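Sequence in, structure out. Go.
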Amino acid sequence: MSDITLNSAATVPEAAPRKAPVSQVGIVGWLRTNLFSSWLSTAVTLLLAYLIIRWAVGFVEWAFINAIWSVPNNQTQACRDLKGTGACWAVITEKHRFMLFGTYPYEEHWRPFLVCLLFVGLYIVSAMRRFWRWELALVWVATLTVIGVLMWGGVFGLTYVPQERWGGLPITLILATFGLAFAFPLAILVALGRRSSLPAIKAICVLYVELIRGVPLISLLFMASVMFPLFLPEGMNIDKLLRAQIAIILFAAAYLAEVVRAGLQALPKGQYEAADALGLSYWQKTGFIILPQALRLVIPPLVNTFIGFFKDTSLVLIIGIFDLLTAGKTAIIEPAWQGFGVEVYVTIGAIYFVFCFAMSKYSQNLEAELNRHRRR
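Output:
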């Protein structure tokens, strides 16, 4: 009897595995869970979808369908006849060189254009980890030397252009690149100084950070531009761009120092003890064990600070330096183009967005790569 039961059970075919309901997995399941989980969520989703679609349609009509892309001989009446129903991109067509390069001599615009390409290439090479060797410092020195030669001229047959004629995107990239490149190592030293056991060094670093962070960047730029020359000997003058650059470096270093210090404090105490047990000196312990781990922990706030200071370079307009934003504002002073500031600001905002978004995406990828071992 038991044999018959076993044989009959063996002949029963197994049921095929069933798939999960379509409404619970995939895109349909995600929509149901996140956007249509209740009547309130459904109502909010539909309302937001309506507003977004309506705005997107209106923007496409304004920016593309009804837009005017060029006008003959600055005859902007056709743009004014639109009365806001379409964009007048002709202002960008006519004024893009002034927006990008400011008052730099028109026939020499190829030089600041090449400088912008060199900066972008330098960023790309520096972002690749396979180039993180000491030779990269030589690449930076050589590239920045070429940039200086191109912007100033006066050698190799290039016409000399004083700094007062510089403007636009090259000024923004110069201020941001030099500012963050010099501010970051200074911030590391200040962060280490704030954790020093030497009272004098610690007091100086704390005073520096609290003093700089206690005033806005505008006040430092005013001091560098107006008050600092009063303390110089008679007949001695430091270029206004250099003074603004130093103010940005000092300001950025104070904020970056607190971010780095946060990473040092977040590191487990066992890492310090393990480094001491190996018999490493202070600088060996800091350079090879402590600092790399601390910086890896604070990549998001570091890049967030970089992005903030890249945009803060636009504040130099208050001391008369023609950065990208100032050049854009000046481009529409001409009466024929007054009233078309929206198009100019949209274009400038798009340029800022490209650089800031690139930094944000790179930081995400770098953080994921450096912290890959934590997910194992």
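Check: The radius of gyration is 29 Å. The chain has 16 helices and no strands.
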